[in-house]
Amino acid sequence: MIRSNHLKLIAQHSVRHGIRGGAGLMSILITLVLGLILASVVIMPIDALNSEMDQFGDRLTPEQRAEVTDRVHQQVVKIASGAIKWTMEPEPAQLEYLTRDKPAMISAILVLLFLVTPLLTCLGSFNQTSGDIGSKGLRFLLIRTERPNIFLGRFIGTFLFIALVNLLLFAILAVYMAAKVKVHPAGDQALWLFQGYLRMLVFALPYVAVCAWVSCAIDSSFGSFAISLLIVYFVPLFIGRAAAAVSDSISYAQFVTPWGFKYWLLEPLGGKLFGGIAVMLAFTGAFLFLGMRHFGKRDL
Amino acid sequence: MRANAVEVRNVTKTFGKQKALDGVSFDIPAGSVFGLLGPNGAGKTTLFSIMANFLKPAGGSIEVLGTNVDKIGDLQGKLTILPQDALFQGNVPVREQLEFFALLNGMTKSQAAEETTRVLAMVGLLDAQKKNARALSHGMTKRLGIAQAFMGTPEVIVLDEPTAGLDPVNAAAVRTLIKDIKKKGTGTLLISSHNMAEIQEMCDAVAILNHGKLVECKSVRELTEHTGVVRLTFGRALTDPERTLLGGFEGVGAVTVDGNNEYSVELKLGAGQTTDSIVGNLVSELAKRGIIPRSVKEGASLEEKFLEATRSQN
Questions:
Q1: Does A143 contact B89 at a Cβ distance shorter than 8 Å?
Q2: Which residues does residue B205 pair with via DSSP β-bridges, in sequence order?
Q3: Residue B310: inside a domain, yes or no?
Q4: What is the domain-level CATH number for residue B271?
Q5: Sign of the dihedral defined by the CA atoms of residues B274, B280, B282, B285, in that order
Q6: ipTM above 0.90?
């Protein structure tokens, strides 16, 4: 029987424990470092343009200044488009949406961050239950609540932890860009960053779920991390690519995991975006169902 | 009130090809202190783990307070356990862990705080309440385990080797806790231990497991009394002629040496004879010869019965 008060208690405890634990701290650190490095790939050339403009800024007339700003903006779109095209091979409409309708620099950062979202998610969620199964510490909970409450409580707690860590990353990015890289209006930047944050969380959801499943099936934290990473990256990158190399008709193998649908989440509001959200939720539901079934039946 | 707190029915458990439990069945009367004995690997911890729903049985079932342990949620707060070798979360303070358990047991925040203070004081860990669990010694960790098992008002408490690794003072304190519960009659306790004297002292009844099979399930009194054996302790070891003499008295059968100065004497009750008459005669005849027993105990020790039961299975 699922009890909401037990879910809440276990999730809260899991978040607190996650932040305090060594693996949690490592996850926070790596998320921030990797996230900021990727963002800087996009920001640095744009930042350089900005600095150059600032140097000459005093000597320019307002008309000249507007012209230079426009050129800088075009340059930003060019750099961002390059990054986006290199990463995701978008349809023209999606490219237009990401670089013209939305702040291009933020779009480029989001596209790059989506590549590492599964890795960062695995880092924060590989040890949902495996460590406590190995140490038998879970037994203190098993006598007090039903297994689904532990499984789902830990899942919710881990997802909240991932959400908090990414919120910190996005908040740093938002503040830095608002203060330093004034290419787009600060409001537009912040709004698109926030939307991107929410879309990234939707993308992270099935990976937290797959880690929950793997974690409850393996009694070792390290083993759980290794297997989770294999599922998360090996399946889409190796099998998907290999399938594509063999034949176009089986290149759709990459869609056996959420990876194949990730950039649907960076589409404009509409069918494809909602389809992407539905797919992520479906994968999450499937992984949770399989994980909970396994956790319910196994010896602990 | 229900007669049996726990009903174990034909429980079987296998790990790979190895049968850890093989059709084990017995009942534990409500309000009793029940000992589960067995050599290492006999299946005691496995049985406890099935009872707490940590492990799933391959066959059979266990009911605690009339509820199948599959529905462990229905036993929330009624069944608690001190699991063997289970580790607390190392980086979480002791108090926080216990309060979390108390909240899961259905207590309010203030009740959880009060109850945590009570059980920490009970096991002498109040001073360590702010420490992370990893900073505790083995004995303190064991006491923390006992504290969480005694939270609230559980009706069935399962203690897997509660005094293992504790110093004599703390082991005695745990035994006192158990005896208090027994005296109050507020719960049923199920204890496993390798310390036979401890089990004999605390338990009303015991079950002995060996190689996953139940080999004995009786009250401690039934097991250790009226066995037709009297144990005599002398101030010195008897000489061979004295031992021969001892075995030659009326109503006395075989004499075996238990220890340096201890002897088990088998009684053979003839017509019109009672244990009292044989033992009385034996003691007075020995006294006449200047051989004064320091103690006379009827029955075998639990340890002897345990060794006998497990030896016959090996």
A1: no
A2: B34, B219
A3: no
A4: 3.30.70
A5: negative
A6: no
Predicted confidence at residue B312, as pLDDT, reads 64
Best mutation target among A15, A144, A293 (most B Cβ atoms within 10 Å) is A144
Phi then psi for residue A138, to 5 deg, are -60, -20
Number of domains in chain B: 2
Residues in A touching B98 (Cβ below 8 Å): none
For chain A of 300 residues, list the mean pLDDT of each consecutive stretch of 10: 92 85 84 87 76 70 77 80 84 90 90 92 91 92 94 96 93 84 82 95 97 93 90 78 71 79 92 95 97 94
Query: Which of B104, B88, B95, B185 lies closest to B152 in space, CA to CA?
Result: B104
**B120 and B92 co-located in one domain:** yes
Name the DSSP class of B89: P
Q: Is the dihedral of CA B222, B226, B229, B233 positive or negative?
A: positive
* Closest listed residue to residue A207, CA positions, set A195, A225, A193: A225
pLDDT tens-place string over residues B104-125? 999 999 999 999 999 999 888 9
C-alpha count within 13 angstroms, C-beta hemisphere, residue A231: 22
The one-character DSSP state at B262 is E
- pLDDT for position A168: 92
Structure tokens at A44: 């640095």
Q: Are B133 and B96 in contact (CB under 8 A)?
A: no
Domain range for A44 is 4-297
Same domain, residue pair B68 and B169: yes
Q: Which amino acid belongs to residue A17?
A: H
Q: Are A120 and A169 in contact (CB under 8 A)?
A: no
Tokens describing residue B217:
């399930």
B-chain residues near A20 (CB < 8 A): 91-92
The number of C-alpha atoms within 13 Å of B137 and in the hemisphere containing its C-beta is: 6
* Residue B213 bridge partners (DSSP): B210
Cβ of A143 within 8 Å of Cβ of B56? The answer is no
Range of the domain at B288: 229-298
DSSP summary character for residue A62: H
- Domain co-membership, B235 together with B144: no
Mutant choice from A17, A129, A130, A140 vs B, greatest count of B C-beta within 10 A: A140
Pick the residue with more confidence: A145 or B307? Answer: A145
